[in-house]
């Protein structure tokens, strides 16, 4: 079940990001989330993460394709996702730590190259 759940959340993120709905895309992150981006910056919290993705779209990175590869359940409240992505023509890998927040899964750590 955890793979299907995370894969669905990834499809939702793709849809929102690709349609310019950055606030909705960032809704997949916890309030205390940290994003470790390829620009060697750490973006902490929803406002900074939203700014990162808004700037990403402004420079022409308008299409993301997430390929869910592996989801490891650590316990009932934490999952680790190891996957890959494409942004326009560039590709890379990422690791996300997901935490259960009530009934929803939220990203708390997002690291990609």
From TrEMBL:
Protein name: DUF4440 domain-containing protein
Highest taxon listed in the record's lineage: Eukaryota
Boundaries of every DUF4440 domain copy: 6-106
Organism: Rotaria socialis
InterPro entries: DUF4440, NTF2-like_dom_sf
Xref: SUPFAM superfamilies: NTF2-like (SSF54427)
Pfam families associated with the record: DUF4440
């Amino acid at each position: 079940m955890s793979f299907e759940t995370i894969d669905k959340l990834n499809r939702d993120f793709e849809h929102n990001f690709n349609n310019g709905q950055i606030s909705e895309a960032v809704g997949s992150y916890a309030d205390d989330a940290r994003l470790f981006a390829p620009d060697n910056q750490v973006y902490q919290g929803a406002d900074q993460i939203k700014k990162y993705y808004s700037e990403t779209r402004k420079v022409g990175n308008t299409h993301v394709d997430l390929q869910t590869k592996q989801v490891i359940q650590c316990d009932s409240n934490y999952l680790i996702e190891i996957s890959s992505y494409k942004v326009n023509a560039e590709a890379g890998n990422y690791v996300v730590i997901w935490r259960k927040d009530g009934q929803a899964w939220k990203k708390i750590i997002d690291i990609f190259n």
